[in-house]
Structure formats: C-alpha cells, structure tokens
Amino acid sequence: MNEKLFEILLNALSPKTLAYLIRDLEDSQADWRYHPEDAPPEAVQQELTQTLKTIEAVGTELAEADGLDFSQLLQQAIEEQRQKDWTWQRDRQEQQNWTNDLE
C-alpha cells in the first residue's frame, strides 16, 4: 500500500477505531513473543512497530481535533478487552463447573 493511500485510510477512521487498531496490533505483538513460530519475519515486525507509531500520531491528532485525549481512548480500549477476557474466562469456568457437577 502506498503512503498516500495509507494516510487517507487513517484519516478516514475515528480516533476510537484507531485506538482499537493499536490495541489489537499490540496484542498480536505480545502473542508473537510467546509464540515466535507464528510471528512474521523480523523486518515485518519492525515495519509494524513503525506503523503503530504512525497510527498513534494520527490518532492523537484526530482526537485533539475532536477535543479528545487519544491516550485515554487507547486505555479505554485496553480495559474493554481486559473486561471481555475476564468475562469470557469466568463464563468458561462456570460452564466447566456445571459440566463437572453433571458427571
């Protein structure tokens, strides 16, 4: 993808969407540290790191234009994911408890 198209794409997204994008990409990077066999080549990982910086800069700029704090939006996106993960784990444990009780 060329730079101009990438810039247009980023500017078309809302700051909240950019925060979710950063959150998800950073989660992927963390997964690669634990599962290096699933990671892309090092050059791609470095390019992704640079891309994340660009997304954060655009997100910050767009958020400020809307009177928002991008770092706060990013933290909210991270907290949402943590809450979903915790809820999923709790539901899974409850399901397992019911299954064990039936055995």
Structural overview:
This protein is an all-alpha fold and 103 residues long. It has one domain. The protein is 84% helix and 0% strand. The chain has helices at residues 3-12, 15-34, 42-65, 70-102. The longest helix is centred in the C-terminal third of the chain and has 33 residues, at 70-102. It is flat.
Short description:
The chain is mostly helical and 103 residues long.
Note the beta-strand portion.
Answer: under 5%
Span between termini = 55 Å
Overall tally of domains: 1
Main beta sheet: none
SS field, number of helical segments: 4
The gross shape turns out to be: flat
Order of helices and strands: HHHH
* Quaternary structure state of the chains depicted: single chain
Radius of gyration: 18 Å
What are the key terms here?
103 residues; mainly alpha; 4 helices; flat
Helix and strand layout, with pairings?
Elements lengths: L2 H10 L2 H20 L7 H24 L4 H33 L1
Helix pairs in contact: 2-3, 2-4
